[in-house]
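Exercise 7. Given the components listed, write out the predicted structure of the assembled complex. Treat all entries as one system.
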Amino acid sequence: MSRQMVRPGGRSARVQASVHAAVRELVSELGRDALTVPLVAQRAGVTPSTIYRRWGDLRELLSDVAVERLRPDTAPGDHGALSSDLTAWAEQFLDEMSSPTGRAHIRDALLGDPDGGNAGRCSAYAAGQIDVILTRATERGENTSDVETVVDHVVAPLMYRILFRPDGLDAAYARRLVEGVLGPAGR
Amino acid sequence: MSRQMVRPGGRSARVQASVHAAVRELVSELGRDALTVPLVAQRAGVTPSTIYRRWGDLRELLSDVAVERLRPDTAPGDHGALSSDLTAWAEQFLDEMSSPTGRAHIRDALLGDPDGGNAGRCSAYAAGQIDVILTRATERGENTSDVETVVDHVVAPLMYRILFRPDGLDAAYARRLVEGVLGPAGR
DNA sequence: CTGCCTAAGGCAAAGAGTTTGCGTTTGGTG
DNA sequence: CACCAAACGCAAACTCTTTGCCTTAGGCAG
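Answer.
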């Protein structure tokens, strides 16, 4: 239902853009909890029924918007070595995701997502970033792990704690996880 | 708002029990998506406003019920060795949690949970079970990891994949995770 | 370029769920 | 036993959601 095969151009695209923009504006103005479909519709200049028909309900709409905001907008930085690349990425990931708005986006993405497609997309974003880092390391001739291992040892613990135990998370924990997967010496 | 300091006995307790029971009945009869607050209220023999005032909304109520169902009802089995105890527990955990109803409970518990209290409770359940297993191993004289390590290396990957990538999960994966944390030889 | 065809949106009424004020019941407590 | 406040029931007001019907406007074939 989300990321639907809308007609690619014209009115459909305009409506989608305007609704997404309305959601972003209203979230920052009134806070996430104050949103309602009629409110978003009014700001976007459409009728509520349009939103209900396209997205089903508010949660799916928020899920759509959340996934977009979770998409990385830039390739991970190149610091010259696998261990620093991965550490920097993990620290930034934790920082972004563990903030109140980051957590809200993750929850939204997970929630309004009957088929799990949006959650899968989030996971793919992270895996993609890690793949870039590992590929770069391989090209340097470094000895790398594979993506799945890094997902299991770094992304999963970070995400688990963000979702289930938001307390006591800091950059040092992220660094420890990266050390754990590469070996203490940076391998 | 959930797990509130309700008056421990009398009517409040009866209402809570009857509402929880109504949720469980209706979920199994009509499916989770068909639930509404008025429906639950009718079955429970209370008025909708009672539910709204005690739980806030349907999601928080479902979160409450879900957490109860995620609570382990029995101590982890004793198979005589750490590696078999942990493997059996992980396999069962994956099996229960990755089923459609298990996933639904996890999602419900996470979703209707503004302050994260319910999610923390879920995590504590798993940590408690692992602690029992590790303590037993220590008493046997086995060389054990600590709970946090097992959470990071076993629970977190399982949960991450259940939530974000529900495909391709099987008992072998759970076994591999346990081997990873104990060492391939069972340590 | 023109004219169909259909997906998508607008509108408005009907339906359903949510919120709230007020009076009553009922545990807890001195 | 008497009091107090939490919790509940009731019902009205309100908001959100759903739905049928009509109009608009992309896309596409001729």
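Discussion: Residues 6-7, 11-12, 15, 46-47, 49-50, 53-54 of chain A lie near DNA strand C (CB under 10 Å from a C1'). The domain at 11-56 of chain A is CATH 1.10.10.60 (Arc Repressor Mutant, subunit A).
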